[in-house]
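[User]
Protein folding is very new to me. Any chance you could explain this protein sequence and its structure tokens? I have pasted everything here:
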Amino acid sequence: MLLSALIGTIGAVSAMAQTNVYSLNAVGYINVTVYPGFNIVSCPLLASPDNTLNTLLPNTTGQYRRWQVWTFNPIANPQYAEDIGVGAAWAGGGAETISPGSAVWLYNPSNTTYTVTFVGTVPTGPQSTTLYPTSFNLVSSAVPVSGDVVTNSISTFSNGVKRDQVWTYGTVAGQYTEYLATGNNLKTNWPSGDPILPTVGSGFFYYNAQATNNYWLENYSVSQ
């Protein structure tokens, strides 16, 4: 199915209730539902002044006390870095970034579902997300879209190879769904169907089976 472009055009206001995305021109905000436990979360907006944890999820009043953020770096050792909300700050300093194209684990320690709001500018023009070789990468769309990752017109991912994998995580069920490419044409070679980004602000693991970097190329303009 075609990905829904969830951005308003210049001079127009767009409200897509099913995805909780609202935008005026190319600047807007995204509401992301955070369920109890672990969630894969992304921010496909350029926040001001930056996309650090302190900007996106400021813990100035202790509202994220005991929450955990786990960033993933496929070429680092260890691959995960953790930050925990303590008092009115983040224990690790809150300098971790959630940039467009990346994703993180966000752990909600309560039994309550929360909504976090990200505010920023929609990335426009060519966007490139690096997929490191023979490794899992924790990624997301670099623009605020949801739906089919492979066959849409904005966020087309067609340059993968046989044995590439996509792993999405169902927060409510607490389990992964695996998509394995059985051929080099990713538009026709996912036995489980094309990988789906369920909501704006979500992410997934992508395993790049190649021995070199691959790139998820996206392109969005406000005229779309």
In short: Residues 1-19 have pLDDT under 50 and may be disordered.
